[in-house]
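Re: your question about 3-dehydrosphinganine reductase

S., sorry for the slow reply, the queue was backed up all week. Below is exactly what I fed in.
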Amino acid sequence: MVSPLISPKPLKLPGAHVVVTGGSSGIGKCIAIECYKQGAFITLIARDEVSIFVFLLVVLCISVDVSKDYEQVENVLKQAQEKLGPVDLLVNCAGTSVTGKFEDIEVNAFERLMAVNYLGSVYPSRAVISTMKERRMGRIVFVSSQAGQLGLFGYTAYSPTKFALRGLAEALQMEVKPYNIYVTVAYPPDTDTPGFAEESKTKVNHSSATL
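Result:
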């Protein structure tokens, strides 16, 4: 039997606990600000401690690398939920990019990008999913990229990590839909952020490349 696709009701943000990873700048920071304006309680998780504390609108700020140690990620999210209540919406926005021709990219860059862009979303999601299932409610957002829909020249290290998020999201949605948990994947284009500015410094010019 095939059940009809049913869109979830919009999450009411006033009073909701929203966790944003990678939220000290760029897209994550903008999402956190917008959710705050709509009345949500915010937990902002990022590696950049200086930027976190400059961003004064956030209710709770935590400095941790979400890609390195699952137990640490789990512990900080437990602390956040003790202070602000269970997580209603998790936005996985932590990410980084390295561009260049495949043979020119350092081998350890492939490992680093997979850790940050993929495991950096797996760990926070894994840490909140049990509570969401117990409550039978929750939203998880994975911020991918247009490079996660189509492989791009010079993005052999980056694109696969963003493709992986789609596979994770689709498989996870099948598991959690019976619990009224919904998973969303966002595919933003090039966006004027500090991360994009840094990425542009090493971007390969396809038109001038010799194939």
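The beta strands are 17-21, 41-46, 60-63, 89-92, 138-143, 181-186. The CA atoms of residues 92 and 142 lie 5 Å apart.

Happy to talk it through on Thursday.
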